Amino acid sequence: MSQQVATSNYHSLLLGARESIPLLGGYIPVAISFGLIALQSGFSSWEAVAISTLVYAGASQFLFVAMIASGAPLWFVVVMTLLINARHVVYGPNLAPWLSTSRLWPWLMHGLTDQIFALAHTRLPQLPSADRLGWFIGAMLVAWFSWIGGTAVGAIAGKELTQQWPLLGDVMPFALPALFLVLLAPRFTSWLWSLALGCTAVVALLFTLMGMTNAAIPVAAVAGAVVFFGMGALR
């Protein structure tokens, strides 16, 4: 019996790792960009890799190195980083119904990024309860190590890569938005999701055109959530 359980966990871990591989198309280019930017901001290669290992928060890392480089107070850097990562307060409760009783889950939440959340929110309900922990471990490890590896490449060889292929510098910033579009595409099969996502995109675009770029994302997110839950309640 124990051998069967171990085999099941191993297969679920491999399944999670395999299903997270498409995320690398967005992770690695953006991580390379972060490594390069961190180096240009005065951080060493090892410091850049350490930030990606310990912080592992995408946009927060870019904000972190920019604010440190500009001489912002440490307390303000911490507050801004926490505000950007406040979205995890929403992620956790949405995944909680599908989590098993394992004590490992709180530790694994270090690997809960936007993309892993989107993937897990779709896949965990489809998996047997016994396979969910292994699946999540496999998915989050592949994503985490690809982010660390991409940062190392950017910090060590990013400058040479962009000098040799200048187009890379223009393409890499679009990798993450493209990845989000791929993750959102399956949701457009539902009229309710299509309406909510369409509203979110329109509100974000309007605020950006009005010059209020800092407010565009949070206001658009709230607008999309109101439309989704409001129309769901009416239905």
From TrEMBL:
<feature type="transmembrane region" description="Helical">
    <location>
        <begin position="164"/>
        <end position="184"/>
    </location>
</feature>
<feature type="transmembrane region" description="Helical">
    <location>
        <begin position="62"/>
        <end position="84"/>
    </location>
</feature>
<dbReference type="Pfam" id="PF03591">
    <property type="entry name" value="AzlC"/>
</dbReference>
<dbReference type="InterPro" id="IPR011606">
    <property type="entry name" value="Brnchd-chn_aa_trnsp_permease"/>
</dbReference>
<comment type="similarity">
    <text>Belongs to the AzlC family.</text>
</comment>
<keyword id="KW-0812">Transmembrane</keyword>
<protein>
    <submittedName>
        <fullName>Branched-chain amino acid ABC transporter permease</fullName>
    </submittedName>
</protein>
<feature type="transmembrane region" description="Helical">
    <location>
        <begin position="133"/>
        <end position="158"/>
    </location>
</feature>
<keyword id="KW-0472">Membrane</keyword>
<keyword id="KW-1133">Transmembrane helix</keyword>
<keyword id="KW-0813">Transport</keyword>
<keyword id="KW-1003">Cell membrane</keyword>
<feature type="transmembrane region" description="Helical">
    <location>
        <begin position="191"/>
        <end position="209"/>
    </location>
</feature>
<feature type="transmembrane region" description="Helical">
    <location>
        <begin position="20"/>
        <end position="41"/>
    </location>
</feature>
<feature type="transmembrane region" description="Helical">
    <location>
        <begin position="215"/>
        <end position="234"/>
    </location>
</feature>
